[in-house]
């Protein structure tokens, strides 16, 4: 039986986030250029997106490009940006067929005009879709997001739009790029690295973390199923005792 059939559809994470890591190492192991690794990574993206939509995950967020990734060699950044445009053009059909809405978080204005325009086009064209929200984190950094939120909230306090006493967690939430998304329930990182790399620091406060020892281009439906099954076995206590959960 397919492993994905063993996933309990009643206990899915409402929000699954994935740090898609290991494209470069995958290519290097095979003697290819890093670009080939990124290209093959897009296949894992399609499989993951389709599988998540089919099994009923409502929110999937993929870390595609970090604020720190701008520091990579220009050739690699250009390749990634080109790949992004071509993938968006190619995958719009997949999104429509599966009733998936595209969303993006990050400092999107830092993206090349062409990427920004294509991205907005797909977001606009899929905005009525309801089965799943696919969020791409692009030019995304959690610290950058938090600094922005702090600036916006401070300005509102200064201009008496909100009072300092009323600044609470929900106000902070409402000023993040992820304002319309629930907290992350499960965070998966591929490639064997066990770090967060500036991804959704606020939003993963109580997420279950799952580090998968497979490079992103090799990540398939079975790896996803295994991570979901592992997630479903965990007891999420949110600070309480086991006894309180019954
Ligand atoms: C993930 O793969 C893709 C991006 C960060 C854009 P990497 O390019 O980081 O691959 P490794 O980690 O060097 O193998
Ligand atoms: C994190 O991967 C960013 C993305 C997957 C987009 P990196 O490869 O950039 O992270 P580090 O540098 O290994 O922490
Ligand atoms: Mg990496």
Could you characterize what this model shows?
The protein is an alpha/beta fold. It has one domain: Decaprenyl diphosphate synthase-like (Undecaprenyl pyrophosphate synthetase, 3-Layer(aba) Sandwich). Helix content is 43%, strand content 15%. It is built from eight helices and six strands. It has helices at residues 23-29, 34-55, 74-97, 113-125, 142-158, 169-174, 221-233, 242-245, and strands at 15-19, 59-66, 100-105, 132-140, 186-189, 208-211. It has a six-stranded parallel sheet with strand order 3-4-2-1-5-6, with helices on both faces. Helix 1 (23-29) packs across helix 2, helix 2 packs parallel to helix 3 and helix 3 runs parallel beside helix 4 (113-125). The radius of gyration is 19 Å and the shape is globular. The chain starts with 14 loop residues before the first strand and ends with a helix. The model has no long low-confidence stretch (mean pLDDT 98). The structure holds 3-methylbut-3-enyl trihydrogen diphosphate (IPE) (2 copies) and magnesium ion. The site of one 3-methylbut-3-enyl trihydrogen diphosphate has 12 residues, from strand 2.
């Amino acid at each position: 039986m397919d492993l994905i059939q063993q996933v309990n559809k009643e206990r899915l994470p409402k929000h699954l986030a994935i740090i898609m890591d290991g494209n470069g190492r995958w290519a290097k192991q095979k003697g290819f250029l890093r670009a080939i690794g990124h290209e093959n990574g897009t296949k894992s993206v399609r499989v993951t997106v389709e599988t998540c939509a089919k099994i009923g995950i409502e929110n999937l967020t993929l870390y595609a490009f970090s604020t720190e990734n701008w520091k990579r060699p220009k050739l690699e950044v250009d390749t990634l940006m080109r790949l992004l445009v071509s993938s968006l053009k190619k995958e719009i059909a997949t999104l429509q067929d599966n009733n998936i809405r595209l969303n993006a978080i990050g400092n999107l204005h830092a993206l090349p005009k062409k990427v920004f325009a294509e991205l907005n086009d797909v977001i606009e064209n899929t905005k009525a879709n309801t089965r799943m929200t696919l969020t791409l984190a692009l030019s995304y950094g959690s610290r950058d997001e938090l600094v922005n939120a702090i600036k916006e909230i401070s300005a509102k306090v200064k201009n008496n739009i909100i009072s300092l006493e009323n600044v609470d967690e929900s106000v902070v939430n409402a000023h993040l790029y992820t304002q319309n998304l629930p907290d992350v329930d499960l965070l998966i990182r591929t490639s064997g690295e066990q770090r967060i790399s500036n991804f959704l620091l606020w939003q993963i406060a109580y997420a279950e973390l799952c580090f998968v020892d497979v490079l992103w281009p090799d990540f398939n439906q079975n790896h996803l199923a295994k991570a979901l099954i592992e997630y479903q076995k965990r007891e999420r206590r949110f600070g309480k005792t086991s006894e309180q959960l019954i």
